[in-house]
Amino acid sequence: MEPIPFSEIAHEFLRLVPKGSEALQKLPDEVRTEFEQWSTGVDLYDFLSRAFMRPALLPELLADHPDGELLKGSFAFIEGLALSEDEYVQGALHFEVYDQFLREKRILSRAESLLLPAAREGLTSLLANTYGVWGGVEEALATFNWD
Predict the structure, then answer these.
(1) Taking the model in full, what pTM does it have?
(2) What's the pLDDT at 108?
(3) Alpha-carbon span 138 to 147, nearest angstrom
(4) What span, in angstroms and rounded, lies between the C-alpha atoms of 36 and 27?
(5) Dihedral of CA 33/84/70/48: which sign?
(6) Torsion, Cα of 63, 23, 84, 105 (10° steps)
(7) Burial (CB count <10 Å: 0-12, 13-18, 19+), residue 78
(8) What's the pLDDT score for residue 40?
(9) Where is average pLDDT lowest: 35-39, 44-48, 118-122, 127-131?
(10) Residues 101 and 127 sit within 8 Å (Cβ to Cβ)
């Protein structure tokens, strides 16, 4: 996997994430148009939340019978972003992707099994630097208060 350049994020999202186009179609017209016409002024935090995590990835991570292709494509997309050296992209990943994995134990457990190396490193860094969990995902699963 290669890093996804900022200018190609929407294109790669649509290429890698099955149902990505369907998720975009559910957004209000002005938001969808902004995302589809991707430019340097697009809010990546908003995109990851509104077009990717909430409508596509989080429901699959919670599903009893998740769509394997959607998960595979989604985690490839995350890995491409994780390989980016852009600090803005890394910040968006931390808040809108990795932090969302910590919403429920089931989400983190399933995500952990699908993370690719750069994304795993990003999540491990978030756990250590933000939450003081130095033992990675395994320690988080065992020690977080999941109530």
Answers:
(1) 0.94
(2) 96
(3) 18
(4) 11
(5) negative
(6) -20
(7) buried
(8) 67
(9) 35-39
(10) no
Residue type, position 12, single letter: E
The packing angle between helices 68-82 and 9-16, to 10°, is 150
**Six-digit token pair at 72?**
């595979």
Dist. CA 126–CA 95, nearest whole Å: 9
pLDDT tens by residue, 53-112? 999 999 999 999 999 999 999 999 999 999 999 999 999 999 999 999 999 999 999 999
Which residue is listed with tokens 């952990």? 112
- The single-letter code of the amino acid at 104 is E
Amino acid 107 reads I
Q: Which two tokens stand for residue 111?
A: 């995500």
Identify the residue whose tokens are 């600090």.
87
Q: Is the distance from CB of 123 to CB of 98 less than 8 angstroms? A: yes
**Left, alpha or beta for 132 (phi > 0: left; psi -120 to 50: alpha)?**
left
Residue at 16: amino acid letter: L
